[in-house]
Amino acid sequence: MTVKKVLSECLLKMGEKDFVLKENLSERESGLLTDILAALNVAYREIVCEYLPLVQRDRVFFTNGHIDASELSRRILYPIRLTADGQTQSFKVYPNRIEADIYGKAEIEYAYVPDTELVFGSNINDMRLTVSVLSDATLAQYYFANKVFDLAKSFDTSFRAKIGIQKNKGKSLLLKQRRWWS
């Protein structure tokens, strides 16, 4: 999905005409698109940091039992799993490094924060997200920033309901076996 599509959806939900593809924007239209794009960036970072993390795997080399966070290919949010020689290893996390009883090659799986901001021509290549989820999150952030709290709460409630469904989609739930008494 494209950022333009999310911005168009936001404008329609705001009751505005869709002027995203318009050539010559007025000052008001340009300012509104800039504000909505800023809210989209905040909302997208919240989604990937708290609800649907972006996951990366890197092959790393532990020296003296640790690796620096700067050695990873992406900006780490939190580690998920560390394996060496096919075995899962325990580790300790510090602000700038990860320590483990490993000396040599390992593979780390971690959640990361996107490096770049979304811009007008960007694509969002996350199939877990829908235009509706992103537009509700964006409008909640936009209205909160503009102190329109009733609309912010409405869009936030809608966003949280939709993201809760997306977060658990495709996962099987395991219920404890219980005895039933008659």
Write structural notes for this entry.
- With 182 residues, this protein is α+β, with helices and mostly antiparallel strands.
- The chain is 40% helix and 21% strand.
- The chain is built from four helices and seven strands; from the N terminus they run ααβββββββαα.
- The strands form two sheets. Strands 1-7-3-4 form a four-stranded antiparallel beta sheet. A three-stranded antiparallel beta sheet has the order 2-6-5, with no helix packed on it.
- The radius of gyration is 21 Å and the shape is globular.
Summary of the model, kept short:
With 182 residues, this protein is an alpha+beta fold. The protein contains four helices and seven strands; from the N terminus they run ααβββββββαα.
Layout of strands and helices, then pairs:
Blueprint: H1 3-14, H2 27-51, E1 54-62, E2 66-68, E3 75-84, E4 87-88, E5 92-93, E6 97-99, E7 104-113, H3 131-145, H4 149-168
Antiparallel strand pairs: 1-7, 2-6, 3-4, 3-7, 5-6
Helix pairs in contact: 1-3, 2-3, 3-4
Mean pLDDT: 90
- The shape is globular
Secondary structure category: alpha+beta
Reported for the largest beta sheet, the result is: 4 strands, antiparallel
Number of helices: 4
Estimated radius of gyration? 21 Å
Element order: H for helix, E for strand: HHEEEEEEEHH
Measure the end-to-end span. 53 Å
